[in-house]
Structure formats: C-alpha cells, structure tokens
Write a structure and sequence with these properties.
Bound molecules: flavin mononucleotide
Helix content: 25-40%
Number of helices: 5
CATH architecture of the domain at 13-110 and 170-206: Roll
CATH superfamily of the domain at 13-110 and 170-206: Electron Transport, Fmn-binding Protein, Chain A
Largest sheet: 10 strands, antiparallel
Oligomer: single chain
CATH class of the domain at 13-110 and 170-206: Mainly Beta
CATH topology of the domain at 13-110 and 170-206: Pnp Oxidase, Chain A
Distance between the termini: 19 Å
C-alpha cells in the first residue's frame, strides 16, 4: 500500500487531491474519476448516485471547483436546482482511501457545457440527447428508436446540438476531508474547512 508514512499533509488540500487522483489513475481498474454525488430535496431528503469528475481546481470563480456534467431535468438536476447544497465522495479501493467534499453547486457557463458536450464521442452526444434522464422509459425500444432518429439526423460523426438541459455543475467546496486506511483501523483523517469561497482554509485531524 502506498500511503505515505508522513501522513496527510496539513496544507494545500488541492495538492493532496491531485496527488491522490493521480495515484488512483494508476491503480484503479476503471473510472478513477468516479464519485458518489449526494443531493437533497429542499426539505432534506437525500439521494445519491455516481457521476464522473470532469474538471477540478482550487478557484471556483475562475473555472475551478469540482465539475461534473448531467441532465438538469433528471432527478438530481431537480434537486440541485431547488437546493444547491451537495456532497461528493471518492472511494479508491485499490488505495484504501476516501475523500469527502461538501459545498454549494453552481451551474457552469453554456460555453463550458458546449465545449465538454462536443468533446465527447458523437455516439455519446446522441445517447445523452436521446435520454429523458430519470423519467419513465416505457421500453428499451423507445429509447433506441430515439437514438436511431438522431443518428439519421446528425450522422455518425455529429456534432449533435447540446440539449439546453444538458449541463455541468461545479461544487465550490467549503469542506474537504481525506481518509487514509491504517493498520488495525487506526485510520487517519484530516479535514479542511473554510467559511466561504474567499476565506482561508483551516485544517485539523479527526479521530477515526
Ligand atoms: C461510474 C458511473 C459514472 C456515471 N457518471 C455519470 C455522469 O457523469 N453524469 C450523469 O448524469 N450520470 C452518470 N452516471 C449515471 C448516474 O449514476 C445516474 O444513474 C443518472 O445520472 C441518473 O441519476 P438521477 O436519477 O439521480 O438524476 C454514472 C454512473 C456510474 C455507475
């Protein structure tokens, strides 16, 4: 196991995030950027699902935060638009590590959503455009028929226009916690907190 003997650094949570993600890219069998995303209704009923991290950086105001893309009319999209608070969880089994990230979500710009949508494989663009994500699908054939219609319209190479409801969100973190497995469950935890986007981070360790 590659956990450093020196422990989780007390400064620069984004540096530690980068280092751990880089290690996960080397050791995870697939999707090292997969994370659980928790959202909640305005009255606090939670729901959680996996999404892929597609960008990250320390400064939320200039394109950073922790970015994922989805359908804003999905179940999660409805919850996000009604309640901006969210939480993310990375768990890398190969490294025995987890990172928890919490804070409010902001929608990315149309230009950023366009750029990412069109960077995807044309077939993936069609798959998203054909999907009323999270709504009832009467049969698989109905979805595949929509896919075929879009293939007919846009061809195999696309590009497919980005549906207005397909967009990205960035989580602007106010809390980031690193957890590292240690022998006999004497695990290591360090949490970074700040009161708002422009406030300095403070860090402390937590009992496991
Ligand atoms: C590894 C993994 C990665 C996924 N990545 C995404 C993603 O980036 N965006 C997305 O909308 N759904 C993604 N999904 C599907 C979601 O987990 C979920 O089924 C879908 O977004 C609908 O969620 P909702 O009904 O809560 O809105 C992923 C699923 C898995 C298992």
């Amino acid at each position: 196991m590659s956990a450093s003997a020196a422990g989780i650094p007390a400064a620069d949570p984004f540096g530690t995030f980068d280092a751990w993600l880089a290690e996960a890219k080397d050791s995870e069998p697939n999707d090292p950027n997969a994370m659980a995303l928790a959202t909640a209704t305005p009255d606090g009923a939670p729901s959680v699902r996996m999404v892929l991290l597609k960008g990250h950086g320390p400064d939320c105001g200039t394109g950073g935060g922790f970015v994922f893309y989805t359908n804003a009319e999905s179940r999660k999209g409805g919850e996000i638009l009604a309640n901006r608070q969210a939480a993310m969880l990375f768990h890398w089994k190969s490294l025995r590590r987890q990172i928890r990230i919490e804070g409010p979500l902001e929608q990315v710009s149309d230009a950023m959503a366009d750029e990412y949508f069109h960077s995807r494989h044309p077939q993936s663009q069609i798959a998203s455009a054909a999907s009323d994500q999270s709504r009832t699908l009467p049969s698989r054939e109905v979805y595949m028929r929509r896919v075929a219609e879009l293939e007919e319209r846009y061809g195999a190479d696309g590009p497919v226009p980005r549906p207005r409801h397909w967009t990205g969100f960035r989580l602007c973190p106010t809390r980031i916690e690193f957890w590292q497995d240690r022998e006999y469950r004497m695990h290591e935890r360090r949490v970074f907190e700040r009161g708002g986007p422009d406030v300095e981070w403070t860090s402390r360790m937590l009992y496991p």
